[in-house]
Amino acid sequence: MDNTTARHQYGFSFMRCDTGGQRVHSFWGSGASEEECKADAHAQARAYASKYENELNEKARAKSRQRGDHYAPSHINVRIVGCSLWR
């Protein structure tokens, strides 16, 4: 039985829901099959989207505090809007 793991590169597009701006990032998925590779890369992309969303919200809160605003800024959501396989 061959215990080699496959690696595939997937490109994901992340969109800021407040402005519509997009950022593209690629991840390498590892697994025994192409489906496992895609699931691994998608898990990495979800973690990245969460980190990116937290980063954007923290920057917005810091800017609001710096300006002395009385209200907190609206929450910025980040979505994964696209995935493609790069060979």
Q: How would you describe this structure to a colleague?
A:
The structure is a single chain. This protein is α+β, with helices and mostly antiparallel strands and 87 residues long. The chain has one domain (6-67, 75-86): Ubiquitin-like (UB roll), CATH 3.10.20. Helix content is 39%, strand content 34%. It has one helix and three strands. The protein has one helix at 34-67; strands at residues 6-16, 22-31, 78-86. The chain has a three-stranded antiparallel β-sheet with strand order 2-1-3, with helices on one face. The protein is elongated and about 60 Å long.
Strand order of the largest sheet: 2-1-3
**Total number of beta strands:** 3
CATH-scheme architecture:
Roll
The shape is elongated
CATH secondary-structure class = Alpha Beta
Total of helices? 1
What is the string of helix and strand elements?
EEHE
Q: What share of residues is helical?
A: 25-40%
Quick overview of this protein structure:
The chain is an alpha+beta fold and 87 residues long.
Essential attributes:
single chain, 87 residues, alpha+beta, Ubiquitin-like (UB roll), three-stranded antiparallel beta sheet, 39% helix
Question: Could you give the topology of this structure?
Answer:
Blueprint: E1 6-16, E2 22-31, H1 34-67, E3 78-86
Antiparallel strand pairs: 1-2, 1-3
